[in-house]
Design a protein that fits this description.
It contains 5 helices and 4 strands, in the order H-H-E-H-H-E-H-E-E. The protein is of the alpha/beta class and 158 residues long. It has a single domain, classed as Aspartate Aminotransferase, domain 2, CATH 3.40.640. It has a 4-stranded parallel beta sheet, with helices on both faces. The protein is globular and about 45 Å long. The termini are close together.
Length: 158
Amino acid sequence: MTHLLLTKCGADFEPIVYSSSGSEAVESAMKVALQYWDARGQRAKRRFIAGQRSYHGNTLRALSLSGFLERRSPFEGSLVDVELISAASDYRPIDGLRGAALTDALAQELDARIRAVGPEHVAAFVLSRSLGPRREPCLRLRVTQEPFALCVTNTTSF
């Protein structure tokens, strides 16, 4: 299966990690980000940032990344504390901005949130590749010089 996928999709998709569901894949990505920083002696990097009105799955950690208050409310108190920024979508743009202006505003908001939390505390920014009509990551990551992980979710079901 891996050989077939790499033949069809290209080597950019290597390595391939299989999971039973998108929720499990997101959960695994969050754990990998935490393990990455732990292995480098930077245990303070425990916080995640995600977009409002995003959906990353139905496990408690994946639900924590969601900005849908309606979905989260029954589980409050059991969710991981996640910083939310504006949705990266043309569907609900910030102040009516479009195109490059929206991308710039979102990048500035992400940068400001990382600085507010403290870059030394940010483990990862979780971004869905399916962002409304644009269907592409719409952030150019011009953020602080402090490194953090970027988890791009791209759930594909076969």
